[in-house]
Amino acid sequence: MERLISGATRVVAGVDEAGRGCLAGPVVAAAVVLHVDRPIAGLRDSKLLSHARRRQLANSIRRRARAFAVALAAPREIDDVNILQASLRAMERAVRGLSVHPELVQVDGNQAPRFNGGGPAVQAVVGGDRLVPSISAASILAKVYRDRLMGLWHLRYPGYGFDTNKGYPTPVHLAALTSIGPCAIHRRTFAPVRRADKGRSGR
């Protein structure tokens, strides 16, 4: 939230996503509305935090934020509409899932969702996960939520190292794609997955 010059307060939601550059799993978006008078110390870009610190902050955000919501777009949707559009859809779902209605939505990056049928004003903020506390909070929630999901997927598909690489194209993950082939949560339109698919079908 932020204060206007008049002294009134408007509801501002910060939004960010996690998992856009992964080869497997969903893209996850979070939206957070913070209390003006209940700041949370230590909020910053989730990528700059340790795993343990992210989890601590995620718990604080869930307890102390005025409102928060998490939403996702599954791998099949990513393949159907492309990763950018799937990310924007997940962001819109997260905002619409908030228990309060924001007047302004601030989104990390240079792309922002459009709210069909009317909705809040939207502002894209480059570097917002470092500059805007509510966006930092959203980046932390999205990252922690997605990491937990990938840990669960690792139990079902243990050969890819999802518990450690979270679906990103690490050497271990790429080697597994070549030796095992893609699994049900891989994004089939992403080049390394597509190549692995093609390589196995050509054997």
Question: Care to describe what's here?
Answer:
It is a single chain. This protein is of the alpha/beta class. The chain has one domain (2-156): Ribonuclease H-like superfamily/Ribonuclease H (Nucleotidyltransferase, domain 5), CATH 3.30.420. It is built from eight helices and seven strands. It has helices spanning 51-64, 75-81, 83-96, 128-131, 133-156, 162-165, 171-180, 191-201; strands spanning 2-3, 9-10, 12-18, 27-33, 67-73, 104-108, 121-125. The strands form two sheets. Strands 5-4-3-6-7 form a five-stranded mixed β-sheet. The protein has a two-stranded antiparallel sheet with strand order 1-2. α1 crosses α5.
Features:
203 residues; alpha/beta; Nucleotidyltransferase, domain 5; 5-stranded mixed beta sheet; two-stranded antiparallel sheet; 8 helices; 43% helix; 17% strand; disordered N terminus
In a few lines, what is going on in this structure?
The chain has helices at 51-64, 75-81, 83-96, 128-131, 133-156, 162-165, 171-180, 191-201; strands at residues 2-3, 9-10, 12-18, 27-33, 67-73, 104-108, 121-125. The chain has 203 residues and is an alpha/beta fold.
